[in-house]
Design goal:
The complex is a heterodimer. Chain A is of the alpha/beta class. Helix content of chain A is 42%, strand content 22%. Chain A has a single domain, classed as Glutaredoxin (3-Layer(aba) Sandwich), CATH 3.40.30. In chain A, strand 4, helix 4 and strand 5 form a beta-alpha-beta unit. By secondary structure, chain B is an alpha+beta fold. The chains are: A alpha/beta, B alpha+beta.
Chain lengths: 165, 692
């Protein structure tokens, strides 16, 4: 019985390791055109009225930077994960071309999201950051992009990237 | 800093446009050519003028053609739960007064339960440009913003810069073709406000739409839009004569929905036409209830129960019965456990089925009842399973097992519930090619409903089907009513083994859609020979002879044999009806020509379909009726995946076969027939449709 359990956990560990390696490789490929250091400034006011400065915030700690939009169907599945993470880790999100502040606020209220959001109505931050795709998730630490991924990303998926940086 | 840059940029842009104007004095381009953003290669688009000029309205028609690679989609003017509609900001254009962007009928996409409306592969949008002065050149300087999504979304801007001398416009055959082809796909606007009524029921947060005075083919698709912040989800549609009533659930993430006096559009689409109605919303109450979930759950229970007596499940029930009779002195607790295990097997497999359907729904695949029989792999697995069960019932495996294993099996009594659980699962799998009364309604509702309802209804179906087993589990003493075991038991078991083997052979014949005939014959012979070989070995030659003759007798009476080899039956029954291939356009043509059309949507793996055919369609009086001069018979074959047939079924609110419907001059929308046909139902529907 014990041996069987051991065998199982061994297989599980191998599987997890493989999954990690594959996702990491895919991330690297996805982010190949993305500037890794000298990230653009991300300074702004959140909808809640707080100042955000990513350069300041990411000193000595990894920060999740999440680009999303109210009109992006897949974001509806990634946002809850980011919301959960935001209770425990520093998270900055940017709403791209999603309309005026009030709209985004109502969208947040309706979905009961509590994460900090900078409203980028005119896609200015998006352009600075060369973000072409929503949803895009970056892990930034000490002004450097450690990880970049797009599309469906699960809560554990974001968490391990956060842990590895 | 930024604003400065922006103004500078604007100045440069204006200068650039002015330059273009000078150049265009000599060359007048009426197309942008293919535009592609290097960072987003899956999208290609071009904007073209057709070259025509409408002098009375001062308009020139243009067309925007968008090509989307792979799975990329762009969106309708009301995209639904995600996406944004493409738009052009004609910021620096001159001599342009107005533009009218028209939207071809969108497709419906689902992604994890989110509904969106849009376009895939390729789409052309007709756009009317209204000019101030046709004698002046038209300067187009605009920014097209196009959203495209797969599992990620991309918002891309394209510059549209053109300078056109209207006087020198030349007809562009390709642009004209694209324009005209797409303009017919744009829903026709109906000015008649009396044809439509939109009623907002604040208490239920529902909108009821009624359109009267128009005939539709089957149940049309309905779309509400006009208020971008509100999402409308179709709840029910009722078609009676020339009126359609539909109820939509309305919700908005901006807070409360307020629709009174707002003008909304209702687009109604059937396979023949698409019309767009608009009117202002008035306050009122929803009058049609639609089918309540409770009612549907009752239907599902009943449908599930009836499944037990359908020919597909009967052999499995027999198997169960034989195990009880075999061991009558099993204590009550044990019987209870065994039957509960089987019931659990049924419930679990219905949940698996629901999960499977959910997965298909999420990925936007065609869905229906029993579609797994469209997969050769599934059938192959079932062939093996039925063969093993059949041989097991015959005693083939007990015989060959070493005594060591036998003792092990005998002592592993606690584990035996697993076998009963598997029996339940097996029964469910075999039940799927059968459609039963009520079952169709329940499944259709479940497939169209939200995820929770889907699982609730499938659970109800499972409980319904498990009811006989649950009954025995509750009153184990019922088993005592069965006859005492004796020598006859051996014969009964052989009969059940034979029935299972027939099922297995039937499954082999289903493979004929996928494998060459010779292979089918070989398989058929091998399976039969193995079975007969085991029988001779285990039961003796005499038993084989007796069983085979009994089997033949029963078989010729029973429906299982009917499904076994249709060719054998066609000798006995006349089958010279000329079946045309299902085609909705042809139906209307024939009906317009005064003919009555009988449509049969069927599949080789659907036993109920076969029963209908042998019991009603190929029997008088229906058979003679169908041969009459004014009758046309059409067949939709669902044996293998067919998008056309699936769409036809779904347009008629069905998700499984058999489906029969009669169209005629008096019933252009068709009269759907019950799942299990009767002479009366068919004859009276034909009479009503033809107006005899």
């Amino acid at each position: 019985m014990k041996q069987r359990l051991l065998g199982w956990s061994k297989q599980l560990a191998i599987f997890l390791l493989l999954a990690l390696i594959i996702t990491a490789v895919v991330d690297v490929w996805r982010g190949k055109d993305f500037p890794k250091d000298n990230v653009p400034a991300l300074v702004g006011m959140t909808l809640a009225g707080e100042e955000v400065d990513l350069a300041e915030l990411s000193k000595d700690q990894a920060v999740v930077v999440y680009f999303w939009a109210t009109w992006c169907p897949v974001c509806s599945f990634v946002s809850p994960a980011v919301d959960t993470l935001s209770e425990y880790y520093p998270v900055v999100t940017v709403a791209l071309s999603s309309g005026e502040n009030l709209r985004v606020k109502k969208y947040m209220q309706h979905n009961e999201y509590d994460f900090d959001v900078v409203n980028d109505e005119n896609y200015d931050l998006g352009k600075d950051w060369k973000v072409k795709v929503t949803p895009t998730i970056l892990i930034v630490k000490d002004g450097e992009v450690k990880w970049l991924t797009t599309g469906f990303t699960s809560l554990p998926g974001i968490w391990w990237r956060l842990m590895m940086s | 800093m930024k604003t400065n840059f922006k103004t500078n940029f604007k100045v440069i842009k204006t200068l650039f446009v002015t330059c273009l104007l000078f150049i265009s004095a000599s060359i007048s381009a009426q197309t942008t050519g293919w535009l592609q953003d290097p960072s987003h290669p899956p999208i290609q688009l071009r904007f073209m003028l057709t070259g025509q000029v409408d002098k009375t309205n001062n308009t020139v028609p243009a067309v925007l053609e968008v090509k989307l690679a792979d799975d990329w989609k762009t969106y309708w003017r009301s995209p639904g739960d995600g996406g944004i509609a493409p738009s052009i900001d004609w910021q620096d254009s001159s001599n342009l007064v107005n533009t009218d962007w028209q939207w071809p009928v969108p497709k419906h996409f689902t992604l994890l339960g989110l509904d969106t409306y849009g376009y895939k592969d390729t789409v052309s949008f007709p756009i009317q440009l209204q000019l101030e002065d046709l004698n002046e050149p038209l300067i187009l300087a605009g920014k097209l913003t196009l959203s495209s999504c797969t599992t990620i979304c991309v918002l891309t801007d394209y510059d549209i810069n053109m300078s056109v001398d209207i006087q020198a416009l030349q007809a562009d055959a390709e642009a004209m073709f694209l324009y005209n082809r797409s303009i017919v796909q744009v829903p026709k606007k109906v000015a008649d406000e009396n044809a439509i009524q939109l009623v907002w029921d604040q208490a239920n947060s529902q909108l009821q739409a009624t359109v009267s005075g128009y005939n539709w083919l089957g149940t049309p698709t309905l779309l509400i839009d006009g208020d971008l912040d509100t999402s409308f989800k179709l709840k029910t549609t009722e078609v009676t004569g020339d009126s359609v009533i539909a109820v939509f659930d309305a919700s908005s993430w901006l807070g409360d929905v307020e629709l009174i006096d707002k003008p909304l559009n209702l687009t109604v689409i059937d396979s023949e036409q698409a019309l767009e109605f608009s009117t202002s919303v008035i306050a009122g109450q929803v009058t049609i209830a639609g089918q309540s979930l409770v009612g549907i759950v009752l239907f599902a229970l009943l449908g599930g129960l009836i499944l037990n007596i359908m020919p597909c499940v009967l052999p499995v029930l027999g198997m169960k019965l034989s195990t009880i009779i075999d061991a009558p002195r099993v204590e009550k607790g044990k019987i209870r456990q065994q039957f509960l295990a089987s019931a659990a097997g049924i419930v679990v497999s219905f949940w698996l089925l629901a999960a499977f359907i959910f997965a298909l729904k999420v990925s936007g695949q065609a869905i229906g009842w029993g579609i797994q029989f469209q997969s050769p792999w599934f059938i192959a697995v079932m062939v093996v399973i039925t063969a093993v069960f059949s041989l097991n019932m015959l005693g083939a495996f007990e015989f060959s097992l070493s005594s060591n294993v036998q003792t092990k099996l005998a002592t592993a009594g606690d584990d035996s519930n697993r076998g009963h659980f598997l029996q339940g699962m097996f029964a469910t799998l075999l039940a799927t090619p059968c459609s039963a009364p009520f079952l169709g309604t329940a499944v259709a509702y479940a497939l169209g409903a939200d995820t929770l309802s889907l699982f609730v209804i499938f659970t109800a179906l499972a409980v319904g089907m498990a009811l006989p087993w649950l009954l025995v589990a509750t009153f184990p003493s019922l088993v005592g009513l069965l006859p005492k075991p004796g020598r006859w038991m051996g014969s009964v078991k052989t009969v059940f083994a034979g029935l299972l083997m027939l099922t297995c052979l039937w499954l082999v014949t289903l493979l004929s859609s996928f494998l060459p005939t010779l292979v089918i014959y070989v398989l058929f012979s091998v399976v039969s020979l193995v079975f007969i070989g085991f029988m001779i070995k285990l039961k003796g030659k005499r038993a084989v002879l007796i069983s085979v003759s009994i089997g033949l007798l029963l078989g010729s009476a029973g429906m299982l044999a009917a499904s076994l080899t249709t060719s054998k039956w066609s000798q006995g029954l006349p089958d010279d009806l000329v079946w045309q291939v299902l085609d909705t356009a042809a139906i209307e043509e024939q009906v317009n020509a005064g003919k009555t059309v009988f449509v049969d949507v069927t599949a080789d793996w659907c036993i109920t379909c076969k029963a209908n055919k042998i019991g009603v369609v190929l029997q008088d009086p229906v058979y003679s009726k169908l041969q009459a001069d004014n009758m046309v018979t059409m067949k939709g074959d669902w044996t293998v995946r067919s998008e056309k047939v699936t769409n036809y079924l779904q347009n008629n609110g069905r998700f499984g076969v058999p489906f029969n419907i009669v169209y005629g001059p008096k019933a252009p929308n068709g009269i759907p027939l019950p799942v299990i046909l009767t002479d009366d139902a068919v004859i009276s529907a034909i009479k009503r449709a033809s107006g005899e």
